[in-house]
Amino acid sequence: MNKIIALLTDFGLNNHFVGTMKGVILTVDPEINIYDITHQIQPQNILEAAYSLADTIPYWPENTLFAVVVDPGVGTSRRSLIVRAGTGHGIICPDNGILTLVEQEFGLLDVYEICVKNRLPGTNAYHTFHGRDIYAYNAARIVSGKVISSEIGHPIKNPIERLKIHEAKITHENIHGNIVKIEKPYGNLCTNIPMHLFSILKISYGDYLEYIIFEDGKERLKGKLPFVRTFGEVVHNEALLYIDSSGRLGFAINRGDFSDNFQIYAGTTWEVRLKKQAVKKN
Amino acid sequence: MNKIIALLTDFGLNNHFVGTMKGVILTVDPEINIYDITHQIQPQNILEAAYSLADTIPYWPENTLFAVVVDPGVGTSRRSLIVRAGTGHGIICPDNGILTLVEQEFGLLDVYEICVKNRLPGTNAYHTFHGRDIYAYNAARIVSGKVISSEIGHPIKNPIERLKIHEAKITHENIHGNIVKIEKPYGNLCTNIPMHLFSILKISYGDYLEYIIFEDGKERLKGKLPFVRTFGEVVHNEALLYIDSSGRLGFAINRGDFSDNFQIYAGTTWEVRLKKQAVKKN
Amino acid sequence: MNKIIALLTDFGLNNHFVGTMKGVILTVDPEINIYDITHQIQPQNILEAAYSLADTIPYWPENTLFAVVVDPGVGTSRRSLIVRAGTGHGIICPDNGILTLVEQEFGLLDVYEICVKNRLPGTNAYHTFHGRDIYAYNAARIVSGKVISSEIGHPIKNPIERLKIHEAKITHENIHGNIVKIEKPYGNLCTNIPMHLFSILKISYGDYLEYIIFEDGKERLKGKLPFVRTFGEVVHNEALLYIDSSGRLGFAINRGDFSDNFQIYAGTTWEVRLKKQAVKKN
Prior knowledge:
3 copies of one chain form a homotrimer.
Chain A (H helix, E strand, L loop, with lengths): L3 E6 L7 H12 L4 E6 L7 H11 L7 E6 L10 E6 L4 E5 L5 H7 L1 E7 L15 H15 L4 H4 E3 L13 E3 L2 E10 L4 E7 H6 L7 E8 L2 E9 L12 E5 L4 E6 L4 H5 L7 E7 L6
Parallel strand pairs in A: 1-2, 1-3, 3-5
Antiparallel strand pairs in A: 4-5, 4-6, 6-7, 8-9, 9-10, 9-15, 10-14, 11-12, 11-15, 13-14
Helix pairs in contact in A: 1-4, 2-3
């Protein structure tokens, strides 16, 4: 059986950190195949990482182990986890909310807390690079078959950390949601509004929607946009609404950057409200 | 026989898109070896992608299949192609001009249009990520040997799209060309002027050339520069002309950034004219 | 035995250069496994590359060959080297100081100068891409077993180039060192002060240190900071001192960017002086 580790971090690519994690993995077992999801999560943005992980997992072979390291609490008492998602995939990561979306969408099967003594030999003096010393090292040992989860950890006693994400919902024909990510490098806005809410309100391609974007409850942008299948259905530099490749509502500008253009960003403080434009009667 | 897919996109590395494409490929066939050419083509810059593809192809094993996705028309009626270049390499890509340089330099052998029904199962609702749903998926099926081109497409009926690139030429001892790319991260200018035009005009290393750079026909920069083998033949921060690693004329500053320094960029609107400096007689 | 080449360059990822190097390697031997350390060394910053190489090497399998190309002198008469570090790892690189730290920390065993005729066939006209034409090509031939070092080079006659890096030291209870790298993307400062100097001065976690940062001998920043194990031991946006993952002193801001915030950068002109704060008596 072929061995796969996929890495997702905020370490960036402009330093040796990701390379060093790969060296550690190969030193444990040179037969492991290592892939990158991304290493350019905005530094310490757990929400962005949580969505990125949930959005990519279903497209990977089931035997993939994801090593996910966005870890502002590195070296503190936050726990390290090794889990199995409802999809069958493994994930090793800090316990800081990074599993929120995976748990919501696919559920979690086994959840183990890794005992702190399981770390790369010779690294006890280091407290700031668990990506190398804990996650890469143990990921490689698991995938190589040298150990199993219950040998490096124990079933968790307290629930895992969860980010407080309001679920998208419909009230009085209005759809409410959050802007959860900016889709770089294009600048599209990714919301947490799933496409089935559009079906409930009988919104079809070609309809126009009125929207308001709020930051911290304060109106930042409002207007009316067409709901279309893809960018090229409007002319250059026109804005549009569409269902993104994860099945959620997105805001975009055809061949432009919605986020930069309107200075709209993402996070739990950014909310959006939409409704289908009433058909005017003459 | 070892299986190779090489990816070239404008998806960036600061999101999960490229990772997800790799997951799709491995799900089809975990034995495929996946490599990255670049994912940082300037968003939607087909000209830059066309040159990057043509410049890298000759250095790859002949059994490599290139999946090239710079695709502003994603989800519209633009065609998807699977072709074989004159070099023997395969390419799968949207039909938007991205093959222009490969066709000019190496020719195209088989050209098939991919039937739209050949897409990753379960993705019919998505219209904005053909990199995942069409190109990665079909590339993997081809390279794995599960299908051949004629099973997922049919020979094209109409010619492929071509970018309008003026060929570099000589008139009255002047060389005319375009600036086709900025060589990031250094900021060198890449032109479409092949080195054999320099031979025709008997220009040798050590000669000085007078140049004018135009944007939209308007003069933006002019001067005189030495034609040298490599950057280190002039002092720090001095500008120079050289033959780049693709065999075309380049403008550079030794340990500096020509593009940033002089605010000169690339595209079909950026033209350059050069001639050998007349030897002054006393 | 499994074949590994690890690449470390300043070529960036926004062009086809690194991809093309991989194509060259695979054309020599498709069984070679290729990994990236980083390709985003600041352009032509040999000091940053020297530290990055020394810091990652110990974490890789001993049979890894590192191809390190930060090469402002490409195409000039600077030598090309193939060496074996004291750790057993191979390195192929230009002779421009890039081995300084590896030599200091691990020593060098064999050091060969590569004969210039050993280059990718068909590339004699090119003088600016030895990453492809010399380093990738010969790295692949070595790792594949097609040649050995003494067949492509000869033992060097003159010493290798060395960067002038002042060693960190203690004078009158003050520690003196340099800022050698900015740890991107977080903006932490990496110094060349090894942790054992802290032991000599009996500095313990929880102590406060007074520091001054100089640029070109001129005071740029001074203050007092706690010495802690990891970022999360101070509150958000507070600065701290810590031992980084390479065992040297670092300056950081918890969830912030020290370099950007205080406009402090790295290089041989950036020095730092620290001493343990005197305990005040009441």
